[in-house]
Write a structure and sequence with these properties.
By secondary structure, the chain is an alpha/beta fold. Helices cover 37% and strands 21% of the residues. It has two domains: 264 residues, Aldehyde Dehydrogenase, Chain A, domain 1 (3-Layer(aba) Sandwich); 183 residues, Aldehyde Dehydrogenase, Chain A, domain 2 (3-Layer(aba) Sandwich), CATH 3.40.309. The strands form six sheets. The protein has a seven-stranded mixed sheet with strand order 14-15-16-13-12-18-19, sandwiched between helices. A five-stranded parallel sheet has the order 9-8-7-10-11, sandwiched between helices. The protein starts with a strand and ends in a 14-residue tail after the last strand. Bound molecules: nicotinamide-adenine-dinucleotide. Nicotinamide-adenine-dinucleotide (NAD) binds next to helix 7 and helix 8.
Length: 487
């Protein structure tokens, strides 16, 4: 069993039981972690609270150096971390190497950003006064992370939270806790005790006590809409700062001018990377009615050529889904679409040659519409549903006909359409011709039911700082506007 990390020590805490961690490609048990308890959260929050004062008062250069050291350690262990990520999460190793690079570069980016400005100076109200704005850390930040990008989504919270001077308690997903614990052991050991703590466990037994804890003023959460809503209902009366990255149902619109082969590759990548288990996965594809058949044929042909298998094999394009519950939910959406008239053009079932693991074939559907669950609810699996549109205005209307607003993709070189798309589509990220490519300085997050938080960029640092205005008068003397009035 891999222990938790509390106050700089490895411990099983108060846990009496273990949670087994499964390899989704083989269904084998990889390892286990303690089933953390509310008392373990109490200990971790206590440690983070005690560490806060010294950490927030650390000079900016020293803090930046420590965060750079974390990045260098992640770099030194890149291979082992990517392998462990592949074992516990399932996606291909090349995607996991990229995830590790994102982690270390996020630490580097915020190490530098953290030593830049901490506020700003205002034009003073009068010449004897000084007005300035100070950005301050909140205190202990609770970071609750899902399983699909266990380290990247952790780093997008932890690196800016620490750079801003906060301390953190991390609650990884119960399905993918091993890599977070690996980082605690090999990459966070240079930080003072209590600055980072990792408590493993289930949502109700560790996540919720973290949300409820009076000494945790900020909850940074990435996960499902349902859990986000529950967290919000607990945290709102306590006036906590909520940073919520929730679900998505992103659309890709292919414009008439697009090359079918290129469009097919872009769509497949956007819909099927990490077996479609990305919050910004393309889950709806809109094709121009004129030329629909050439786009459809190119997509079907390309998707059929993709290779399923273990993420450890370099030739694998797509790995398994994370678990049986998620695969069963995915299959129910496919079955529902079929029962309402959708046609399966590629895939549609479990691969015959992979009897172990939670694999599902990448599945292309046509004849779908917005009355079907597969076009309304988050799918989080390897589906490529194709729907035709007549005018570009209609394509934009369809894109916006969704409760989520995380990202949206357009494949086109038509400048007028591109302008209309980024002006009129309500989503936090718009990708033109290069889906799902993020940028360290480019804020990432959603609109509508996707939650309003922003990660990365200066916005991502500001999520973990609160604003204080200081009004300073150099003259300690009686003011004419004080009492008594009418003097
Ligand atoms: P989930 O909501 O089931 O779990 C996320 C985390 O919350 C886990 O660590 C879990 O243990 C914890 N949790 C569960 N119940 C809790 C509770 N009552 N209180 C506190 N914590 C609790 O989500 P998941 O299945 O792990 O992840 C998939 C979801 O995450 C999808 O909906 C996906 O769209 C979303 N996601 C969003 C983004 C984004 O940036 N917007 C990125 C990745 C994933």
């Amino acid at each position: 069993m891999r222990p938790m990390y509390i106050n700089g020590r490895f411990t099983n805490g108060n846990s009496k039981e273990a949670i087994e961690v499964q390899n989704p490609a083989t269904e084998e048990i990889l390892d286990s972690v303690p089933r953390g308890t509310p008392e373990d959260i109490e200990a971790a929050v206590g440690a983070a609270k005690s560490a806060f004062d010294a950490w927030r008062k650390l000079g900016a250069n020293e803090r930046a150096n420590l965060l750079h050291e974390v990045a260098e350690k992640v770099h030194a262990h890149r291979g082992e971390i990517a392998r462990l990520l592949t074992l516990e999460e399932g996606k291909p190793i090349s995607e996991n190497e990229e995830e590790v690079d994102w982690v270390l570069n996020t630490f580097r980016y915020y190490a530098e950003l953290g030593r830049h400005h901490r506020g700003s100076v205002l034009a003073a109200g009068s010449s004897s006064q000084f007005n300035f704005i100070v950005k301050e850390p909140y205190g202990v930040v609770g970071c609750i992370v899902p399983w699909n990008y266990p380290l990247l989504l952790m780093a997008w919270k932890v690196a800016p939270a620490l750079a801003a001077g906060n301390t953190v308690v991390i609650k990884p997903s119960e399905m993918t806790p091993l890599t977070a614990l690996y980082l605690a052991e090999h990459c966070f050991d240079n930080l003072p005790a209590g600055v980072i703590n990792v408590v493993t466990g289930y949502g109700l037994e560790t996540g919720e006590p973290l949300v409820k804890h009076p000494d945790v003023p900020v909850i940074a959460f990435t996960g499902s809409l349902a859990t986000g809503q529950k967290i919000a209902s607990i945290a709102a009366p306590m006036m906590k700062k909520l940073h919520l990255e929730l679900g998505g149902k992103d659309a890709t619109v292919i414009a008439e001018d697009a090359d079918p082969e290129v469009a097919a590759k872009a769509v497949a990548y956007a819909a099927l990377i990490n077996a479609g288990q990305v919050c910004t996965s393309t889950e709806r594809v809109y094709l121009p009615r004129r030329g629909a058949s050439k786009f459809t044929e190119a997509i079907v042909e390309h998707v059929k050529s993709l290779r399923l298998g273990s993420g450890l094999e370099s030739s694998t394009d797509m790995g398994p889904m994370i678990g049986e519950t998620y695969r069963a939910k995915f299959e129910s959406q496919i079955a529902d679409a079929k029962s309402h008239g959708a046609k399966i053009l590629a895939g549609g079932g479990r691969p015959k040659n992979l009897t172990r693991g939670f694999f599902h074939e990448p599945t292309v559907l046509s004849g779908v519409d917005h009355s079907m669950v597969i076009m309304r609810d988050e799918t989080f699996g390897p589906a490529v549903p194709l729907m035709e549109y007549t005018t570009f205005d209609e394509a934009i209307k369809l894109t916006n006909d969704c409760k989520y607003g995380l990202g949206a993709v357009l494949i086109s070189n038509d400048a007028k359409k591109i302008k209309q798309f980024f002006d009129d589509v309500k989503a936090g990220t718009i990708w033109i011709n290069d889906p799902l490519t993020d940028h360290y300085a480019g804020p990432f997050g959603g609109m509508k039911y996707s939650g309003g938080a922003r990660e990365l960029g200066e916005e991502g640092l500001d999520e973990f700082r609160e604003t204080k205005h200081v009004h300073w008068d150099f003259n300690l003397e009686d003011k004419e506007y004080w009492y008594p009035y009418g003097r």
